[in-house]
Design a protein that fits this description.
Elements: H1 3-26, E1 41-42, H2 45-49, E2 57-59, E3 80-82, E4 103-105, E5 113-114, E6 126-128, E7 136-137, E8 149-151, E9 172-174, E10 195-197, E11 218-220, E12 241-243, E13 264-266, E14 287-289, E15 310-312, E16 320-323, E17 333-335, E18 343-346, E19 356-358, E20 379-381, E21 402-404, E22 425-427, E23 448-450, H3 458-467, E24 472-474
Parallel strand pairs: 1-2, 2-3, 3-4, 4-6, 5-7, 6-8, 8-9, 9-10, 10-11, 11-12, 12-13, 13-14, 14-15, 15-17, 16-18, 17-19, 19-20, 20-21, 21-22, 22-23, 23-24
Length: about 475
Amino acid sequence: MSRRYKLIFVLLFIISFQYGYGQKKSKKKPVIEQVSQPEKEYTSIEEALLNKKTATILNLENKKLSTIPEEIGKLQYLQELKLGYNQLEKIPESVFKLINLQKLYLNNNKLTVIPAGIGNLTKLKELKLQENKLIEISDEFGRLVSLETFLCGENQLTKIPNSIGNCTALQIIDLFNNKLEIFPASIGNCRNIKILDLNWNQLSSLPNEICNLNKLEILRLEKNKIQQLPAEFGNLVRLSELLIASNELVDLPESIGKLIELKELLITKNKLIGLPESIGELINVKILDASQNQLNGIPESLKNMEKLEELYLHNNQLTILTGESFNNPTLRILNLSLNKINQFNCTIDKCKQMESIDFEQNDLYLFPNLITNVTSLEYLNLNKNKLSDIPKAILKLEKLKQLLFSGNEIITLPIDLYKLNFLEELDLSQNKLQIIPLNFNQAKSLKHLDLRGNPFYKWHLKQIKEKLAIPELLVD
């Protein structure tokens, strides 16, 4: 065979091979992506019983049921049972035969007791019991070792079984608005808890073991009778939300300064007489509300709270304020109203973002001159004090929009008060003014001027009405 024919033979072989391979490849079936279908939710027992092996979800909510047929116990493959918003007064024993249940919703019924049978549901992960009339939960509750979410708010429980400490998978516990007087120390074993809601109960104390919950992120304790937090409370280092308002706390533990994940600290409506120096270590707190307590002093360390924006100290027992407690560059709102402050000598020259200071209803005889260094102020309330004059230095507060002096003993005003170019509201009512400058017409932004309750000369009162053209002028 000549060389030419050999080349032709090789070429034909290659062509035929590629063609055959391509044909074989083209016959290969394309890959079809499998899409999982959601499990069917059955809405009647009858339908579910006809499909026992596929019935995993049964929803009987809001059907005005007062009883549940015993046949429900035959649905052995059931994983979710929703019986909320009915009229059930007790849980039928047949429900406790559903040993594969992972979710059981019994909320918004008329249940008074959770019986021992609940312990059979060892695979249960979510249990909803809120808005019933529960007064007792069986100790067998502790067998729910897979339980992650336990919602039992708005009932009438006075105690929780000690066996809850065996439910170590728990992550969420909601016991809002019950009548709990004590909380079991065994809760310290449940170290996976992230949310614990005990708002609106009758607790006078917390077990020390609660400090073991080092994964706890949200703790709600409002409207109880708690007098003291455990000394090691600061071990709850992951807390980002702590609600302890409306209790009977007389102090806070020094360890509270370790809760550096907190963004807000709301401790209003307690009986606190002081705050720990360690509070200044809460470097992420933006809002601190310690109003409606019995505070007689403020720690200097407040100035170290690097992100503090709002500070509420109204309705306490503060009298003399000195030092640098409020000298915080991030502070925007400071409320000191409803105290007994007669001296304010705090250095606040670093408060470059301060927008609002409220001194209403205190005992100030002298205008707190140091606040005139806070040139960012837009709102200043000095209503119901004992001031006799307004210093000319107030003109340094060029950004003021609201200036309130009602209920003082002011006799004279700075003649250039109208030069506060952004001032929109000026309240001078209930003072001792007999005469005022009549140049307020030159004020660029003034819309509201309240002069009521002052002993003006009659001739001057007539001048005020004739010469001042303020949109909202209140005189009589």
